[in-house]
What does this fold into?
Amino acid sequence: MKRTQNLALAALLAALTALGAFLKIPTPISAVSLQFFFTVAAGALLGSGWGAASQGVYVALGLMGLPIFTAGGGPAYLLNPTCGFLLGMIPAAAVVGRLCRPADGLTHRRVFLGGLAGLLVLYLVGLPYMYAVLNLYMGKSMSAWAVFRDGCLIFLPGDFGKLALAAWLLPGIQQRLKH
It folds into this structure.
């Protein structure tokens, strides 16, 4: 029964991550979306393996051509400067799941700190990818500082808001899922 429940919840969270891509505020280089909120939810509610699988399904479906990313989908999306953040959602969910320890019962503090670690992983994957695509493929000549500023700093207030929302909601959601 637990495997079936995990499979269904992983599919649901992959679908919600896709929905989160369309709930966005555009910015010059990317968009603020709810995708990371659902990445944290996947890791916190499903644990490391199933959470990463959920986000992996989302990314795979988008790269196969379903238009479920903020700017479409398909294999050409690998040349989009923001694709590294999509790829980073997979290990980010794994880290969140490992640190939140959902089998022990979620707490607000563990969700926030696990989500914060997942956010760090997301940026550690996404920013170098963005830098490489912008500079090596697109020929933009952006400095590392400019990529950090435009690809991270402007998004941090929203990211912390998403983490606070996740920390507030997910322990209660987990309790309801257990019943």
In short: The chain has a mean pLDDT of 94. Helices lie at 2-22, 35-63, 83-100, 108-137, 144-151, 156-178.
